[in-house]
Amino acid sequence: MQVPSGTARRLSLALAALVSLFVVSSVLVLVHMREIHARMVEMQARQHAVRSALEVASAIRDTYAHQAHTLILGNDSHLHFYETAASRVSRLTEEMKGQALGPEERAWVEDIERAQRSLDTLFREALLPAVLAGRQEDMEREHGRALGLVSQMEERTDRLVSHFNHSVDAAEARVAELQSSAFQWTLFFLVGAPLLAMGVGVYIVRSVARPVARLREGAARLAAGDMHARIDITTPDEFGELARQFNAMTAALREHQERLVQSEKLAGIGRLAAGVAHEINNPLTVILGYVGMMKKKAEGNLREDLQVIEDEAVRSRDIVEDLLALSRPLPAEPEPVDLRALCEEVVERLRQGGQLGAVTVDVEGEARTAGHLTKLRQVVLNLMRNAVDACGETGRVRVRLVQTEKGAEVHVEDTGPGLSVTARERLFEPFFTTKPSGTGLGLAISQSIVQAHGGNLEAAAGTGPGAHFTVWLPATSQGRA
């Protein structure tokens, strides 16, 4: 399973934050609305209970009124009305049992129910017979008992009404509280969602849109031919990785372009040299021949002048040979080369030629490669000769050989004055030299030979005084003919 990228995670988190705010706010509002609905239902039930309690109170008064009329009239003409009212009290009391919620309310309803049964028994078994028999004393006594039961029922009914009204007030207060809370959450969502969306937008612009714009700008600069274009994105995500890959790509393109320009330049010089070498060498040969014959007969100042002519003619011939070296292809097949033996051979050749003087040359390490011995000898000879010349009369040249898995490295370091930044940038250009004498073709030819082997030659800033040249050669020849 592919792991989400850093940008995908950030966008997912930002979207999740917006969705979470919406979900949380919506859930809270829905919970409040549900509770408001429940409280409204409860309030309606309690209001209905209040009406039921008031109806019970009214029915109780009707029952007592019909009992009173029976006493006043002294007959049973209101018995039917009494029975209707008593039945209504029983029915309403039974209905109110289902509306009573707590044990206290249910106890009050049961008190009313018991008092109603006692009142009905008193009326039927004591009060009504006393009325029909005309027993005034019994009538007054039973009427007092009936009045006490009615008062008890009315007191219980008043308690129920008061308790029910209090429940209604509490439900109304809770509904108002829930409505206020729901309004606050809705307002928070309406204000917070745009603010969070703006924050997410700014975050996306900074973490996504801005890097994309920088990448687009860098690509446009590269497309316009700016090989020094760089993208400065250092974030540890795919944009930072893409920027690093882009910078590496531009560096590689720049290096390849420089190599191509250098190769084309050297190839052009080589083709020119090959075209004119014959025309130049023939006159030089004639000049050297005549100068040699004239030197045999000349004496004094004339002989010195002829020597100057001969030296300059030889120098011209060497320049032509160096130019021809740029156009000569490598031998067809590479061969194993022991770089340690090659370096020691070059040191011995310089010593025998008297070019070392008091300069010390140390060769360290072992390395092997596959290449063309003569060409590689020319590279090492050019580098060591330059190092010895840079050291002056005394100094030290250190040659380090390093064998790696990918190839071999030859490091040539000297204790001379070193190279300036400007000189390092132009060092491998044909005819550029920092010495008072020389053609300025040695390093250009050396670089051409090394690149033809599939390697690289570069001048680095040394860790101390002097210059530091590094030759890297692949383990097997990857050169071109």
Please provide a written account of the structure:
It catalyses: ATP + protein L-histidine = ADP + protein N-phospho-L-histidine. It comes from Archangium violaceum Cb vi76. It is found in: Membrane. The chain crosses the membrane at residues 12-31, 182-205. InterPro entries: HAMP_dom (IPR003660), HATPase_C_sf (IPR036890), HATPase_dom (IPR003594), His_kinase_dom (IPR005467), HisK_dim/P_dom (IPR003661), HisK_dim/P_sf (IPR036097), Sig_transdc_His_kin-like_C (IPR004358). With 481 residues, the chain is an alpha+beta fold. The chain folds into three domains: 6-199, de novo design (two linked rop proteins); 232-328, Helix Hairpins; 331-481, Histidine kinase-like ATPase, C-terminal domain (Heat Shock Protein 90, 2-Layer Sandwich). 71% of the residues lie in helices and 10% in strands. The chain has a five-stranded mixed β-sheet with strand order 2-4-5-7-6. Strand 4 and strand 5 (407-414) form a beta hairpin.
